[in-house]
Amino acid sequence: MNVTLAGVTFQNPVTTASGTFGSGMEYKDYVDLSRLGAVTTKGVSSIPWPGNPTPRVAETYGGMLNAIGLQNPGMEMFIQRDIPFLRKYDTKIIVNVVGKTTQEYCDVVERLAECDVDMLEINISCPNVKEGGIAFGQDPKCVETITSELKKRAKQPIIMKLSPNVTDIAEMARAAQAGGADALSLINTLTGMKIDIHRRACLLANKTGGLSGPAIKPIAVRMVYQVAHAVRLPIIGMGGIACAEDALEFIMAGASMVAVGTANFINPTATIEVLEGIEAYMKQYHIEDIKDLIGCVK
Amino acid sequence: MNVTLAGVTFQNPVTTASGTFGSGMEYKDYVDLSRLGAVTTKGVSSIPWPGNPTPRVAETYGGMLNAIGLQNPGMEMFIQRDIPFLRKYDTKIIVNVVGKTTQEYCDVVERLAECDVDMLEINISCPNVKEGGIAFGQDPKCVETITSELKKRAKQPIIMKLSPNVTDIAEMARAAQAGGADALSLINTLTGMKIDIHRRACLLANKTGGLSGPAIKPIAVRMVYQVAHAVRLPIIGMGGIACAEDALEFIMAGASMVAVGTANFINPTATIEVLEGIEAYMKQYHIEDIKDLIGCVK
Amino acid sequence: MSIAMKNKTIITEQTMLAEDIYSMWIKAEDIASTAKPGQFVSLYCQDGSRLLPRPISICEIDKVQGTVRLVYRTAGKGTKEFSKLKPGDTIEVMGPLGNGFTLEGKKALLIGGGIGIPPMLELAKNLHCEKQMVLGYRDTTFLEDEFTPFGKVYLATEDGSKGTKGNVLDAIRENNLEADIIFACGPTPMLRGIQAYALEKGIKCQLSLEERMACGIGACLGCVCKTKEVDHHSNVKNTRICLDGPVFYAEEVEL
Amino acid sequence: MSIAMKNKTIITEQTMLAEDIYSMWIKAEDIASTAKPGQFVSLYCQDGSRLLPRPISICEIDKVQGTVRLVYRTAGKGTKEFSKLKPGDTIEVMGPLGNGFTLEGKKALLIGGGIGIPPMLELAKNLHCEKQMVLGYRDTTFLEDEFTPFGKVYLATEDGSKGTKGNVLDAIRENNLEADIIFACGPTPMLRGIQAYALEKGIKCQLSLEERMACGIGACLGCVCKTKEVDHHSNVKNTRICLDGPVFYAEEVEL
Ligand SMILES: Cc1cc2nc3c(=O)[nH]c(=O)nc-3n(C[C@H](O)[C@H](O)[C@H](O)COP(=O)(O)OP(=O)(O)OC[C@H]3O[C@@H](n4cnc5c(N)ncnc54)[C@H](O)[C@@H]3O)c2cc1C
Ligand SMILES: Cc1cc2nc3c(=O)[nH]c(=O)nc-3n(C[C@H](O)[C@H](O)[C@H](O)COP(=O)(O)OP(=O)(O)OC[C@H]3O[C@@H](n4cnc5c(N)ncnc54)[C@H](O)[C@@H]3O)c2cc1C
Ligand SMILES: Cc1cc2nc3c(=O)[nH]c(=O)nc-3n(C[C@H](O)[C@H](O)[C@H](O)COP(=O)(O)O)c2cc1C
Ligand SMILES: Cc1cc2nc3c(=O)[nH]c(=O)nc-3n(C[C@H](O)[C@H](O)[C@H](O)COP(=O)(O)O)c2cc1C
Ligand code: FES
Ligand code: FES
After folding, report:
1. Nearest C-alpha of chain B: how many angstroms from D23?
2. Does this complex have an ipTM over 0.90?
3. Which one of C34, C46, C51 would you mutate to disrupt binding with B, by most B Cβ within 10 Å of its Cβ?
4. What ligand has the least distance to the C-alpha of C55?
5. 10 Å Cβ neighbour count for C29?
6. pTM, entire model
7. In 3-state terms, chain C is what percent helix, strand and coil (to 5)?
8. What is the pLDDT of residues B35-88, one digit of tens each?
9. Fewer beta carbons within 10 Å, N or C terminal of chain C?
10. What domains lie within chain A, and their CATH numbers?
């Protein structure tokens, strides 16, 4: 079941979607973290970020909205506390990196260069912060520039995490490739809104939030398929994965790894069920190597 | 409950989403068409279109994909058969117009100029045809040009129907306004894909299809809100409306009318339930004029 | 045609006929009083994540009790949900939908393949002529005993465990069956074979088709089938299986 | 802290206490054996269109039977779904979650507002000191009789139909209630009032807070509350209500 992305070998293709699994601590009693291909952490910034006011989450039909606003303790506490915690487990560490300016992204990437982590996932697609985030991910020139700036500084391979809130995801993928990205993650959340018709106001304090969960899966699978046909880079696929069947759709569309996100909230053992389900599928169809499934749908 | 858009007064703000209600014939035994604000027809082209191969529809979590490919009998049969049928009812007629080239759109609009219909809804956002459709709706220059070309020829007010598969929906709305549009409809479907993991192939013959239904509602509400804050044009809001609460979200976000689409398939009387639910809400909160609700969420 | 409303109905019986094959009776007086063999109903899931109706053929109609029988295979999550329902539970149903079979001919072949077998039962009950039933299965058989009152039953199984080893056409050839009318329902490859067979032999032939559906009532154009001639409604060579079918004459459609 | 797994539990009792207010007992031995007053559970909907767990406070714990009582208002579609379940039906539950109340003080005020009243019952049972219960309602009252074994009960109703006309603070003032510890649960405006009251009077005060949740276990940062000091875990002035709460001392949080 192992897969290699940008020179890093993962024991299996299942990781967690950033922001839905903390740094693994809260799930360690539900999931043996050593069984995961990787843990992808919540976004980390150079200094602590307080995030948005509450309410920060809202349920929608088959999905949810979140506007956490990238609350995080900042890279120093993360490095001191979360990396050593994760290193106790036999799993790879992918650190999700956020910033408000190119400089802030660079600061985190440079600081992490000295740290024992396996890959960096650069979040240029968060719809819930006023500056940075998605703004970087909706313009191909910005995508290319920030990718090449970070690539210069990174010691670990970098994964650019793309926003689905674009006209042409393939264009963004090509821009990231041109900038030197080692891999791509997609998709981040789609910008959405929910209105409380009785209060006549937005349900989220931030008004808009990011839509995630099973509702968005068809959009995510389509984007993975499009990007897989547009660039040579390996893809981490995500967006609504709740079971092995979902994960296999992403793999067949072209993803080398898959990330479980919102499903963790509904089923804390979702990651392991996805993993075991992929194993069972491969057994059922006598598939020895998961690579034979990656991108098998033409 | 009446609303006026571009000089046309509708007895209430509820219409049908194009392509989900035929020209009303198939629903006439379920719904008293005279109770609807308007019937919006399936897309009509200059000559008959055969559409895409099957399978054309697939269920997704909380939604569905379709790739009908705008099958339609062509404008002559439509004019001969469907307009007289609809005119028997006390409802407005909005004709959805499609084409593969600007010329084809113009042909339909010019032909309909002589016909007894109330408004034209120009579909520049269908993701399921190779030419035309969405291609016109993803570039602001194209949106403006086609709008102004059609506006020159149209006798009825024109509604531009926008695609959600864009980075900035407000930009498209402004382009339509600049081109002289009288109103906007949003959203059309989001491009999606479903893979049959056992056959290892796309479920739809067309590979991709348009995602509709409750799953996409938060995206649609957000886009209506954004567009309502970007342009002066009245908006027909749609995307996942299945009940009055849903419709009220769109109205409060800024839509003057709402269209019920996929929900018709699940509940053939959905339009009437939406209408009655809005009435009940207005009664409950002592709201005399629906205009007091339109765009009331700031 | 009578109006097929969407109604909540009560399940009066639910039994397992074979592995993954269930038989369900529902109380639906409106449907029972108007339905014809070959028509179908749309069943709706309770779980809100599954929106689209599941089309299921009418297997039997009990006009006296006002009940309708549906025999179905648990193909996916929707039918699995149905199979867990118990007598007394409710299920939302719209029907009867589609055109149904035209009762005609003197010597008939009723051909059912797999989950295309159920609609043949009500047809067999209503068709007043000489009847030969050819039922094709992959391995496990079901429902075959219920056909014996209506004529001779021939089986075909892919694994050869019962009847002819092979498909329904193999069984027809092996038994030298003749007819002036064929009624068939089953997977598309089987129907394609029967279509060719009937056209070749010059036997009149009604085929009941299957396609993914959304509305079930002719509005969405999701469920079309290619036709030889331009269709009256669509004005192109496409017809709606849900409304103008599911039953077509073999010469009308391209499979 | 013990691990709160997500489990399918059986409903042993479901009754309506008042309009829109239901009392449900579930068989959940793991929860019953470890839960403390003030903790809550996450209830999951069966309908797949509703994904997020519904946090509901533990109202009573029966360690002998291994059951837990939940009293809830049908606020929306999820709780409405729960209210239709019958004894013998199953419901998925994760818990116990959160920290719960710290048992302390000599003379306590237990203040519940609306649907914040239920957790006060198990607290009243466990708190071994002098107890005064102040229960606030909009109009219809519920559960108040069950508090009488544990101390004197004061009511406040907004419409004045029972007890003090007004809110819980009005009732406290009207009855000149004194205490060295306050425990409170209810809507945020009420808690804000109690917080100010307690700080002003110098009374120790534990508040049980409410916020929209997604994970319920501290991972998503959805349910935070502003704090006066930098929080140990988040390194900002935000703490997680689901994990580090829902109970906080009045001086810790900003409402
Ligand atoms: C006119 C007609 C009559 C039918 N009669 C019967 C019958 O009597 N007994 C029986 O067992 N089956 C019958 N089928 C097939 C039956 O509709 C599908 O097996 C069923 O819809 C599968 O639903 P699911 O949720 O279990 O599967 P899923 O794969 O989870 O369904 C997902 C979606 O695909 C659709 N779908 C999946 N398979 C089919 C299919 N083969 N045909 C059409 N839609 C499909 C479902 O309706 C649903 O919208 C009939 C189909 C048609 C078109
Ligand atoms: C720690 C805690 C303890 C609670 N204890 C109780 C209790 O004992 N009894 C009781 O009746 N209610 C309690 N609530 C409130 C209860 O969680 C909500 O009323 C319930 O989630 C509403 O769900 P719904 O599906 O009916 O409403 P909907 O409005 O349809 O729910 C939609 C979404 O919003 C969330 N939501 C809606 N209202 C609230 C709310 N007030 N607080 C948090 N989330 C909300 C739901 O969980 C769901 O995710 C508690 C809340 C918290 C945070
Ligand atoms: C509560 C929440 C917090 C998230 N935080 C982050 C984040 O910090 N960085 C990031 O790149 N993506 C973040 N995401 C996006 C997810 O990683 C993922 O891309 C998205 O949710 C789609 O996957 P899903 O549908 O499986 O959740 C967050 C999503 C949720 C629901
Ligand atoms: C089966 C189907 C056919 C459609 N055909 C058209 C069409 O012909 N023209 C058009 O502008 N939109 C078409 N649409 C898009 C709908 O009008 C609507 O914009 C979209 O489905 C979102 O609304 P809903 O979620 O309520 O269905 C179609 C949608 C569906 C599901
Ligand atoms: S299913 Fe909609 S036309 Fe047949
Ligand atoms: S609900 Fe996720 S951190 Fe509290």
Report:
1. 28
2. yes
3. C51
4. 1
5. 14
6. 0.97
7. 20, 35, 40
8. 999 999 999 999 999 999 999 999 999 999 999 999 999 999 999 999 999 999
9. N
10. 3-51+70-191+206-292 (3.20.20.70)
